[in-house]
Inverse folding.
């Protein structure tokens, strides 16, 4: 609704209209606002780019950490170990060795077998430890050599 | 002017800057006027208007059209104006009090008589209670409708009409009183 009135009002309305009707922003308002928006927009894009780069770096760090973790190294070693050694030929050799052992065992003098039986748990334990520790020692050495002794326990700052 | 839906579509298409550029002509003067009605300072109102549009630009991504764009923009403007007003009052309490820039809407190129008359009218308007002054400022700024002033100030249309009526009565009475006093002096 436009201002309207009677008597003295039109004059007052007209004066008020004239007084406030010319109120406006300065001529460069839009230009300076759009310039500010552009600056903010560029800054936001920069922030976004930096954040994306940071996330990517963090992802690669996590990946490297997983690749070089003990669990992964040991798992990889055993996978390689089994795929390399547990072959049909190896199984055949093991079965054959079993038969040979059985044959030799049955022909050993009873006092020898009694003595061997007495120390069997210790001997088997020692063989087991050697079989497990030797590959682990090799894995540990290789890992240290590859990473130059770097620690991966602390995340990057 | 774009509809609210078209503004949302632009924002969803990642064209926030274009959306702002599109709504700016429609809201520039309204936002400035609303801020001016609170702050009574052209410079401060312009600063607030800039802040409002920056806030709108930043938050456009969150605008979902549940409320109308105008309601949203006016709410931001009112809140920003009140914050600026509070900041200015606390600044003033720390420094020497200065008068409000009440004559800054007066046309400097006008004749001395017109300028004096405008200044007198501006003094009368500034003497009105805050709400009446705001309604008068916004209503006459752009020959706005009662409905538009109501939306800008977030008050019912009936209240706008009442405030405007009271303000006009006061201003008429004050202007008549001033004219009588001038005649008596002469």
């Amino acid at each position: 609704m436009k201002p309207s009135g009677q008597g003295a009002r039109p004059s007052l309305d007209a004066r008020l209209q004239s007084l406030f009707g010319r109120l406006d922003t300065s001529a460069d308002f839009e230009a300076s606002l759009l310039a500010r928006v552009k600056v903010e927009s560029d800054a936001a894009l920069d922030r976004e780019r930096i954040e994306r780069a940071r996330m990517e770096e963090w992802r690669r760090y996590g990946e490297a950490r997983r690749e070089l973790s003990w669990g992964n190294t040991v798992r990889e070693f055993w996978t390689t170990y089994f795929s390399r050694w547990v072959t049909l030929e190896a199984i055949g050799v093991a079965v054959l060795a079993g038969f040979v052992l059985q044959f030799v065992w049955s022909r050993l003098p009873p006092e020898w077998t009694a003595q061997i039986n007495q120390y069997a748990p210790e001997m088997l334990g020692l063989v087991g430890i050697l079989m497990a520790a030797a590959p682990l020692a090799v894995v540990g050495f290789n890992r240290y050599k590859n990473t130059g002794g770097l620690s991966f326990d602390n995340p990057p700052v | 002017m774009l509809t609210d839906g078209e503004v949302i579509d632009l924002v969803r298409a990642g064209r926030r800057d274009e959306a702002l550029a599109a709504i700016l002509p429609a809201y520039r003067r309204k936002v400035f006027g609303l801020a001016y009605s609170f702050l009574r300072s052209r410079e401060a109102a312009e600063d607030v208007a800039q802040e409002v549009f920056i806030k709108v630009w930043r938050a456009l991504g969150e605008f979902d059209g549940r409320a109308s764009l105008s309601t949203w923009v006016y709410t931001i403007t009112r809140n920003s104006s009140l914050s600026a007003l509070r900041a200015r009052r606390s600044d003033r309490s720390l420094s020497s009090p200065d008068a409000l820039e009440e004559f800054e809407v007066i046309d400097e190129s006008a004749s001395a008589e017109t300028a004096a008359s405008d200044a007198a009218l501006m003094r009368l308007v500034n003497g009105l209670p805050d709400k009446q002054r705001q309604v008068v400022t916004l209503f006459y700024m752009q020959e706005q409708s009662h409905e538009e002033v109501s939306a800008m100030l977030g008050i019912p249309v009936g209240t706008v009409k009442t405030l405007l009526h009271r303000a006009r009565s006061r201003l008429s009475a004050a202007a008549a009183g001033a004219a009588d006093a001038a005649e008596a002096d002469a």
About this structure: The helical segments of chain A are 9-21, 29-67, 70-85, 88-107, 110-147. Residues 88-147 of chain A form one domain. Residues 15 and 152 of chain A are 78 Å apart (CA to CA).
